[in-house]
Amino acid sequence: MARPGEEQERLAAAWERELEGDDELDVLDEVSPPAAEAEAARRVLRQESD
Fold first, then answer.
1. Which of 20, 29, 49, 50 could form a disulfide with 36 if both were Cys (CB 3.0 to 4.6 A apart)?
2. Measured between alpha carbons, how far is 15 from 39 in angstroms, rounded to an integer?
3. pLDDT score at 15
4. Distance separating alpha carbons of residues 27 and 47, to the nearest angstrom
5. CB neighbourhood size of 45 (10 A)
């Protein structure tokens, strides 16, 4: 099992990849950066639970 700091770093990296890799989030980020960040977090957590 990963230590909490390692898990946090892994999730943060996944979140950044999601924000950078999705054109839909790029458009949302232009309109509302917090909404884009929240959506990226939801997607990462959803992937984690699958």
1. 29
2. 10
3. 93
4. 22
5. 13
Quick one: tokens of 42?
């939801």
What is the SS3 string spanning 1-41? CCCHHHHHHHHHHHHHHHHHHCHHHHHHHHHCHHHHHHHHH
Q: What is the pLDDT of residues 13-49, one digit of tens each?
A: 999 999 999 888 888 888 999 999 999 999 999 998 8
- Output the six-digit token pair for 15: 């979140």
Q: What is the pTM of this model?
A: 0.77
Write down the pLDDT at residue 36.
92
Q: How far apart are the first and last CA of the chain?
A: 18
